Amino acid sequence: MRRRTVLAAAGAAALAAPVLTAAPALAASTHRRLEIRGVDISSLPKDEDFGAVYRYADGRRDDAIRILASYGVTHARLKVWVHPADGYNTKKQILPLARRLKRAGIGIWIDFHYSDVWADPAHQTKPEAWATLDVAGLTRAVYDHTADVLGSLKRQGTPADLVQIGNEINGGLLWPEGKNWGDGSGGWATQAAFLKAGLTAARDTTPRVRTMLHIASGGDNGTSRWWFDNAVSYGLDFDIIGQSYYPFWHGDLATALANMTDLAARYDKPVVIAETAYPFTLESEDATNDILYDPSQLTPGFPATPEGQAAWLRAVADLQAAIPGGKGLGYCYWEGVWTYREGDGWDPTDPTSGNAWENLALFDFDDKALPGLKTLGRYRG
After folding, report:
1. Three-class secondary structure assignment of the chain
2. Whole-angstrom Cα distance, residue 343 to residue 245?
3. 319 falls in which pLDDT band (50, 70, 90)?
4. What is the pLDDT of residue 152?
5. Given a cut of 60, is residue 21 above it in pLDDT?
6. Which residues make Cβ contacts (< 8 Å) with residue 38, sequence separation at least 6?
7. Widest Cα–Cα separation across the chain
8. Which residues are tagged catalytic?
């Protein structure tokens, strides 16, 4: 995820399987606690360096990771960039962050972007240091980078529990060579070579890690089938199907449930919502136009209030719990600790850039934990 634009992949549309027309009803109660109740905390080291503090709902101040653990968060997702302009989201920050997570009893979920900056369906820019490499060189760079980060985590006694090979890779990764559609791209064969290199590195360094391939099509069954049918046909050996699912981009809950139920059955693999979020207000704490700012962007029945945010998290948890056979593993809230602090903006190349996400965090403008954090961590269907 990033300040989002949407990929229009003509190749994907042409090859997409038919969209499902029926959706199973969300279960009112499944009596099942989700295995993964996660929060992406990638921004935390930078936010803390710029003065961020975090508080329980009653105002008591504490370490953000201890607060998350106290509310029942099971996993923390950490994005990895290669050589970002601001120096954050690299191994230098991830290793100490992993030690803090292990002390708190929170699992480690590593999210490789294979870029120096945000990777998403519309942006998969090669790291500058890899710009002149050919396909063979890029394949080796994916392996070495993945093995370096995951191997370092294991050697310090904090091995990753989950790992994503790529972030929202609907259109591939490491463009243009790894783009899976359009003229001038390497197509699926090249994308598959890159992904196999990352998957192999993950298993070589951390044999017990669970691997994930992640696209951003939570409510789009046609694109999802097209993508994962290709992934299987190219022999990609992975454990978990990851989907981004934001209602303001990816449709209603029933359609998303139908899609994820179909994927779990079609590929006999568990599904996780790797990213979701919802605003607790439409107000902004800085001068940057937030991603969610207008009532027309809201989902009916879920107001932009602390209670509305918590209700959304409950609904998404119910969606995962309703996937048959226990194949809905859970979900991860994207950048739940990214509160506003001047200097910690969205653009790593621009220190003056603002935060377009603070009204979707899990802490309010007074730095207090919102009700949604309790809903997320302590959910039981």
Report:
1. CCCCCCCCCHHHHHHCCCCCCCCCCCCCCCCCCCCEEEEECCCHHHHHHCCCCEECCCCCEECHHHHHHHCCCCEEEEEECCCCCCCCCCHHHHHHHHHHHHHHCCEEEEEECCCCCCCECCECECCHHHCCCCHHHHHHHHHHHHHHHHHHHHHCCCCCCEEEECCCCCCECCECCCECCCCCCCHHHHHHHHHHHHHHHHHHHCCCCEEEEEECCCCCHHHHHHHHHHHHHCCCCCCEEEEECCHHHHCCHHHHHHHHHHHHHHHCCCEEEEEECCCCCCCCCCCCCCCCCCHHHCCCCCCCCHHHHHHHHHHHHHHHHHCHHHCEEEEEECCCCCCCCCCCCCCCCCCCCCCCCHHHCCECCCCEECHHHHHHHCCCC
2. 29
3. very high
4. 98
5. no
6. 73, 74, 75, 76, 77, 107, 109, 330, 331, 332, 333
7. 56
8. 168, 275
What mean pLDDT value characterizes the chain?
91
According to the model, what pLDDT value does residue 129 have? 98
Asked if pLDDT for residue 18 goes beyond 70, the answer is no
φ, ψ for residue 332, nearest 5 deg: -130, 130
Q: How confident is the model at residue 22 (pLDDT cuts 50, 70, 90)?
A: very low
What's the rounded mean pLDDT across residues 8-23? 37
34 contacts 326 by C-beta, under 8 angstroms: no
pLDDT > 80? residue 16: no
Residue 13 has pLDDT above 90, yes or no: no
Residue pair 340/334 in contact by the 8 Å Cβ criterion:
no
* Cβ–Cβ under 8 Å, residues 24 and 322: yes
- Output phi, psi for 347, to 5 deg: -100, 110
How confident is the model at residue 354, as a pLDDT?
86
Q: How far is CA 286 from the centre of its chain?
A: 24
Q: Estimate the crossing angle of helix 221-233 against helix 187-205, to 10 degrees.
A: 70
CA angle 100, 359, 315 (to 5 degrees): 80
Task: Read off the pLDDT of residues 188-214 as tens digits, 9 standing for 90 and up.
Answer: 999 999 999 999 999 999 999 999 999
Q: Is the pTM of this model over 0.90?
A: yes
- CB within 8 Å of 133: residues ≥ 6 apart: 141
